[in-house]
Structure to design on (328 residues):
């Protein structure tokens, strides 16, 4: 490649990266504006301290899922650094606000790929982690609904269906076959061999980590309700309810490609699942359910923006230090 071609390629890559950043920020801003507008329709006094707790629990809840993704990369024979994986994982969450959700794969893969991590393997690992996350969430929702079935049979079977749709493709034999059908590794036997390393042990570890992840996300929702001043909340006894409601709503929002981030779909599912319970705590149950759903959306979005900005800048700083050291 000539110097001119190399320069053109360099500027083209920079242009693509800038376009991706602009697209993500445009989508995030649209989601933020819409959530804020819908929340503004409901007047509610919020307690900032509890919002901070909710944000902290939300970010902590994402950590086990990020750890699982790192383990998947290692299981597939990739030499992925833990810090690099976590940075790509958290920043990649912003991609879900772009319609179609493919940007999640683009961002994560683009940030983690390199001489130690193959691009194709990184991409399929993102799908595996995401689908497993959704399968575990749907399973927890189905388990809770089965324990308190009542007249929620439709919701229960919906959760079971979501679990099967997202969980079956993650089973190692099925996943490997799907990867082969997609043509991954067809031109490079080494990649195909790495993908064959995926085992049920990795998947079981993932389920354990993701149960913890969903539990922390359920606690984040409880903290959101606390921020709204709702009395009588039980963080321990009702944790299965909070977790099941958040997980089912998130999975439902994930499966709807439009609107971005599942906004509106996730909030509707969360509000609907919580109205009856909140009616035992407040006469404004419907208002509280809808308002809390949109407050949780804002908390999660602002948290993702904050942690992504911090981790992205830290990564740039590290790259500059390495470049200077290499120049010396």
């Amino acid at each position: 490649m000539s110097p001119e071609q190399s320069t053109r390629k360099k500027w083209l890559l920079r242009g693509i990266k800038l376009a991706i950043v602009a697209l993500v920020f445009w989508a995030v801003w649209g989601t933020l504006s819409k959530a804020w507008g819908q929340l503004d329709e409901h007047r509610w006094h919020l307690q900032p301290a509890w919002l901070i707790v909710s944000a902290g629990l939300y970010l902590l809840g994402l950590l086990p899922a990020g750890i699982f993704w790192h383990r998947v990369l290692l299981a597939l024979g990739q030499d992925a650094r833990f810090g690099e994986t976590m940075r790509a994982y958290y920043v990649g969450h912003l991609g879900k606000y772009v319609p179609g959700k493919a940007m999640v794969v683009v961002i994560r893969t683009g940030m983690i790929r390199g001489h130690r991590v193959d691009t194709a393997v990184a991409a399929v690992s993102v799908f595996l982690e995401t689908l497993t996350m959704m399968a575990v969430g749907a399973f927890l929702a189905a388990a809770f609904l089965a324990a308190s079935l009542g007249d929620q049979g439709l919701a229960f079977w919906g959760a079971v269906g979501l679990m099967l749709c997202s969980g079956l493709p993650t089973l190692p034999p099925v996943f490997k076959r799907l990867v082969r059908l997609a043509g991954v590794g067809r031109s490079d036997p080494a990649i195909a061999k790495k993908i064959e390393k995926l085992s049920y042990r990795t998947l079981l570890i993932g389920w354990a980590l993701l149960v913890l992840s969903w539990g922390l996300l359920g606690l984040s929702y409880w903290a959101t309700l606390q921020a709204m001043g709702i009395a009588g909340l039980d963080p321990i006894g009702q944790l299965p309810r909070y977790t099941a409601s958040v997980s089912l709503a998130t999975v439902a929002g994930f499966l709807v490609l439009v609107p971005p981030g599942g906004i509106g779909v996730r909030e509707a599912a969360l509000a609907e699942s919580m109205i009856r319970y909140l009616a035992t705590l407040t006469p404004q149950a419907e208002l509280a359910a809808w308002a809390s759903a949109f407050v949780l959306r804002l908390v999660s979005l602002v948290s993702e923006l904050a942690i992504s900005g911090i981790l992205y800048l830290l990564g740039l700083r590290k790259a500059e230090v390495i470049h200077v050291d290499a120049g010396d």
Q: What stands out?
A: Residues 46-327 form one domain. Residues 285-327 form the longest helix (43 residues).
